[in-house]
Specification:
single chain; Rossmann fold; alpha/beta; seven-stranded mixed β-sheet; transferase; formyl-coa transferase, domain 3; elongated; three-stranded antiparallel β-sheet; 17 helices
Length: 404
């Protein structure tokens, strides 16, 4: 039995922050039902690449979930949603703060039919504050939180982090918030409302940067591959690429000098005698290290780093990362069959359980794939379901695959 077996989740979210949250819950065994508008569905369904009309970007974070396509603006559609909400443990949404209230599906409305519900909202800026009504995507939150000013090369333009880090951080934050509320509910029977935002979640990850600012008034700026508090701790150029080295403490620094770089005299050099002096001379240190590293390829230096016990590794392209034997041995690339996309690869599970191993139980659903199944669970009969389709209250993208 999976850890969250029996938890019922209604997922009104789209794009990445919310779906990543519900992916975590679904992978852990929760029954996650996406409630999607139609004919478009979750906005990430519009993002390519596509195969046979289905998108890979939607397929990745939406495995192990069901989909019901439902018109929430229709009174019958809203009635169906409230029936589902009445039985749900968790409802999660990422509308702008006022939208859910206007639609009549906000926390108070759901709580009226399900007092024990856990209702979670994810938004750009949060449910309160002067910016609460503004829309917020990952790129906007990266700008507002200062992340773009501390990413990239010194003196360069602001740079976006290479992944949608604010979306992911908000999704993770919402997931652990929901799990905390769920444990509370199991102990007390009480549900509650919780919310987070892309901005709040990202700022919560800036521990060392906030320490430097609150402690010394330092404003974190772009440092390229360098660490702000430690060196050698960055990517260095080699003969054929780059290698990362993490030798920030004295023991590792000594091993690096003696066993990797062949420069034992650097250990006692007054310019590098401790971490503080190495940081003061970081430009010089970088040039001196790279002068040596450029003589051999990356693979040579990775081998020497491994032999000396100094943490380091190659700077891969994404393609190289996904084909690395260690990544494959850790099952971080899995294969699955999708009924429309066909055989496809996806990212594996970052947490390995000894007693309740995770698996891809179902591929991401097509829009409205489980509409009939969900309606049947509510006790609707065949003729009632047909009438809902005829009235455009519900939808299935592939009616030829539909079984009534």
């Amino acid at each position: 039995m999976l850890p969250l077996h029996g938890m019922k989740v209604l997922d009104l979210t789209q794009f990445l922050a919310g779906p990543y949250c519900t992916l975590i819950l679904a992978d852990l065994g929760a029954e996650v039902t996406k409630v999607e508008r139609f004919p478009g569905g979750d906005d990430s369904r519009r993002v390519g690449p596509f195969k046979n009309g289905e998108g890979y970007c939607f397929a990745m974070p939406n495995r192990n979930k069901r989909s019901i396509a439902l018109d929430l603006k229709n009174e019958k559609g809203k009635h169906i949603f409230m029936q589902l909400a009445e039985k749900a443990d968790v409802v999660i949404e990422n509308f702008r703060p006022d939208v859910k209230t206007k639609m009549g599906i906000d926390y108070n409305a759901v709580k009226a039919v399900n007092p024990g519900v856990i209702y979670c909202s994810i938004s750009g800026y949060g449910q309160t504050g002067p910016y609460s009504q503004k829309g917020g995507f990952d790129i906007v939150a990266q700008g507002v939180t200062g992340l773009m000013r501390m990413t990239g090369e010194p003196g360069g333009r602001p740079v976006k982090v290479g992944i949608a880090i604010n979306d992911i951080s908000a999704g993770i934050t919402a997931a652990y918030g929901i799990l905390g509320a769920y444990i509370h509910k199991l102990k007390t029977g009480e549900g509650q409302y919780l919310e987070t935002s892309l901005v709040d979640a990202a700022l919560a990850w800036t521990f060392w940067e906030s320490a430097a600012y609150f402690g010394a008034g330092e404003i974190p700026a772009a440092t390229g591959a360098r660490h702000r508090r430690s060196t050698p701790y960055q990517a260095y150029k080699t003969k054929d690429g780059y290698v990362t080295i993490g030798a920030g403490n004295d023991k590792l620094w000594t091993n690096l000098c003696n066993k990797v770089l062949g420069k034992p005299e650097w250990v006692g050099d007054p310019r590098f005698i401790d971490l503080q002096t190495r940081m003061k001379n970081i430009d010089l240190l970088e040039s001196m290290i790279e002068e040596i590293l450029k003589e051999q390829p990356t693979s040579h230096w990775v081998e020497k780093l491994d032999e000396s016990g100094v943490p380091g590794g190659p700077v891969y392209t994404y393609e190289q990362a996904l084909n690395d034997p260690h990544i494959l041995a850790r099952d971080m690339v899995l294969e699955i069959h999708h009924p429309i996309l066909g055989d496809m690869k996806t990212i594996g599970f970052p947490v390995k359980y000894s007693g309740t191993p995770l698996s891809i139980r179902t591929p991401a659903p097509w829009l409205g794939q489980h509409t009939n199944e969900v309606l049947n669970e509510l006790g609707l009969q065949e003729e009632e379901i047909k009438e809902l389709y005829n009235e455009n209250v519900v939808y299935n993208k592939y009616p030829e695959r539909m079984i009534i």
